[in-house]
Amino acid sequence: MMKPLYKLVFLYLLSVNSSGFTAISLSENVLVDSNDNMIYTQDVDGSLQAINIESGLSLWKARSVMKPLGLANNLLLVQLKPHSKGQLKLAYINAIDGSVNLMLDVSIPADVNARISQGMDDTFLIKRDNNNQLFWKYSQHKSGALEANQKRTVQFGRLNIDQPNLAVQSSHSSRLEFPKSNKATNLLQGVVGRQIYSENRQHVLLVTNDSNAENGNFYLWEFYHINGTKLADFKSQQGYSPFIIVGNYLIYTHSPSSQLLANNVVFNTPRSLIVYDLSKKKINWQFEITDNKYTGLIAP
């Protein structure tokens, strides 16, 4: 099989002020604001909702599909669906009530489709790094072997926002820095398992295989403060999930999964946002969220 060829084309740079974003990016469409105890995420329809961490109540819901990217000074920076290729649509919306403050059209290469959900032939992703910057990656991944004269194209860009002026400026850059790994190598001494930092690097998840797996829960999750104090443990079907702990609440996402039960019954679990109460040692609430990953065509 012919190896895929990759070509790096264009790197756009936009500008962010020193105050940066205050909310933590838990995953590609989940923002956690520990200051105001709020979560901003896309519901199953792709609409943006603002949800209180403790109660699980939604304060507001946007009327259109929006993906949260960052929060600063009570303004949410969100991505919207583009009208055409070569256009990255962003907006500032009020974090208090969800009203639109300002629309921004960012120029990107003409062949880039800045879509919110991944497609069969291409993917556009925007993520945060540890320096409060945003970067995007666009890749085309048509199925099948490439012909001799074909190339697969990967394009990159970095987004920095001029927060005081709510402006976007662009310039070129020669390289792209990706977010650092959250692997917490040997932070906890005298334990066996994979150690992973929380998204704010204040806590550690220790993951081990569970030899007494029940109901498809093949992993044991143990949560520690970085000072070594153990906070909670429970079994999971997942080997890992990005997480953050706000007060008494552990916040993480559960990936879509299917489980074969008795009598050949298949139990499907959608992608969900889960808030676990550490003091009560049980799930406080959970909320189904959209899965922007492309998982193939659905059979009729």
3D architecture notes:
- The chain is mostly beta strands and 300 residues long.
- The protein has 2 domains: 9-172, Thrombin, subunit H, CATH 2.40.10.480; 194-288, no CATH class.
- The chain has no helices and 25 strands.
- The chain has strands at 6-13, 24-27, 30-33, 38-42, 47-52, 58-72, 75-80, 87-94, 100-107, 122-128, 134-140, 152-159, 161-162, 167-168, 171-172, 194-197, 203-214, 217-225, 230-236, 243-246, 249-254, 257-260, 266-269, 272-277, 282-288.
- An 8-stranded antiparallel β-sheet has the order 2-3-4-5-6-7-8-9, with no helix packed on it. Strands 10-11-12-1-15 form a 5-stranded mixed β-sheet, with no helix packed on it. A 4-stranded antiparallel β-sheet has the order 16-17-18-19, with no helix packed on it.
- The two termini are 31 Å apart.
- The model is unreliable at 1-18 and 169-175 (pLDDT under 50).
SSE blueprint:
Elements lengths: L5 E8 L10 E4 L2 E4 L4 E5 L4 E6 L5 E15 L2 E6 L6 E8 L5 E8 L14 E7 L5 E7 L11 E8 L1 E2 L4 E2 L2 E2 L21 E4 L5 E12 L2 E9 L4 E7 L6 E4 L2 E6 L2 E4 L5 E4 L2 E6 L4 E7 L12
Parallel strand pairs: 1-12
Antiparallel strand pairs: 1-15, 2-3, 3-4, 4-5, 5-6, 6-7, 7-8, 8-9, 10-11, 11-12, 13-14, 16-17, 17-18, 18-19, 20-21, 21-24, 22-23, 24-25
